[in-house]
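User: Here's a chain of 273 residues. Predict its fold as tokens.
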Amino acid sequence: MDLKDKLLLIRENDYQAPLDIFPFVQEMIHNIGSLDAQLRDELIYTTLSNWIPGNALTVHELEQILPLVLDESHLLYRLGETNSDSVFTRSFSMLVISLFFTRNRESPFLSKEHIHRIKENVFYNVQKECDYRGYDEVKGWAHAVAHAADVLDDLAQCTELDEIDLITILDLVYQKATITDRVYSDGEDERMVKSIISVLNRKMLRQTYIKQWIQRFGDVEKDLEFLPSFRQKNNIKNFLKSLYFRIKFHQLDADLGLTIEHTLYKVEPVYYS
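Assistant: Prediction complete.
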């Protein structure tokens, strides 16, 4: 019986964990970037999303799995490639990291050293990730930016991260929200905004700094070619509009909303005048 058949049977049995769960999870992590979308997403990830937060694995077992997920064969696998199959390994390894944080919020087990190692590897991944595909019609979800944004949100909530780390999160989101390669179309803007709200909720950064960060979107260096500049402008507008309504929904500083309005006008005065 191959891995897929085993996982289908586990799903039929309401995700009851086998006795040999640890080597089985290792096999799942090894196949986390499978090009079979059902195996990768519906079976491996969904099974892990039941087992990791659900305490099927011991803390010792999780501590052994974490370095594997973070290594150059998983989270950092062929980082920097575009339009290649390596993105699925990186992206779904990122989702597994988010499951670790879900478990940690319910029952803390990650040490300060664990969290900082995760932070360093995730920050590096986000900085270097160049594959911006969302849904691939043949191979399913790539969604590297959205999955990374989820983990940036997890990290922003960690008290182990300081002011400099939160500023880095803002900078990384700015970098990804201003890309020129494509217009995000699969909810990436909303996922990125979540991490910004978590940064704001930490109340560690001055409002003047946040306003200046928002204003940077109106001063971004524009590409000389029309199409890249057009894509970037649409990404910026979509991100700012998502941020605007999320700030309004959470009843955060109204002045930030005004700053977004003024920035949108600067980005596209023809529509916001």
